[in-house]
Design goal:
The protein is about 45% helix and about 15% strand. It is of the alpha+beta class and about 200 residues long. The two termini are about 35 Å apart. About 20% of the residues are buried.
Length: about 200
């Protein structure tokens, strides 16, 4: 279910939203149903609490393309904004959310907004597009890194940091047989980066 970079464009229509490298932004502004602001606020609080549970984190890992997301109630409790940054195609991003526990939670949250058909409804993408407003400017600090690449970099970093702390690694650094490798610019850069 993860997005891939460099994939051919789908036959889907072009979707609103700006991109920077592999990252794209998605922002929707909706009207809250009259009298639903407090219920929406409660559902958002429950959703925020649930994002720490293993099932929700696993769903985000399954989706594998979400960098970040935020939910905001504004205009005196009359409007709601959802904004996120993701990798890959817009259509795949929406489809992937609908296939996980996150989709059910989004159904509950967006049920407090006017006209929301539900994430499983065939018209949900058209509804999102009708509510979506592209950013005037969108910049990513790491435009060439997908969520999958960031997670891999984190795993490699953790493994390397663990290696640095072993007696075997220290012994290898002190072994004269490794002097040629240790003197290479690539190894020196690696050690400088590890020390930073």
């Amino acid at each position: 279910m993860t997005a891939t970079t460099g994939a051919p464009q789908s036959a889907q229509p072009e979707r609103p939203g700006r991109s920077d490298g592999v990252c794209s932004e998605f922002t929707v502004f909706t009207k809250i149903k009259p009298g639903h602001a407090d219920a929406l606020r409660e559902d958002l609080a429950a959703f925020a609490e649930s994002t720490t549970d293993a099932k929700a984190r696993e769903a985000l890992r399954q989706i594998g393309t979400l960098h970040d997301a935020r939910h905001v109630i504004f205009d005196n409790d009359t409007r709601f904004m959802f904004a996120s940054v993701f990798d890959g195609s817009w259509d795949t991003y929406i489809d992937d959310f609908a296939k996980t526990v996150v989709g059910a939670r989004f159904d509950k949250i967006f049920s407090h907004t006017e006209g929301f058909p539900g994430v499983a409804d065939p018209g949900v993408k058209d509804w999102f597009v009708s509510q979506q407003e592209p950013a005037g400017v969108f910049v990513s600090s790491y435009p060439d890194l997908t969520v999958q690449q960031i997670w891999k970099d984190q795993r490699v970093d953790e493994a390397f940091e663990a290696l640095l702390d072993t007696a075997e690694f220290r012994a290898a650094l002190d072994n004269p047989a490794n002097a040629e490798l240790l003197a290479t610019p690539a190894f020196q850069k690696l050690m400088e980066e590890a020390a930073a």
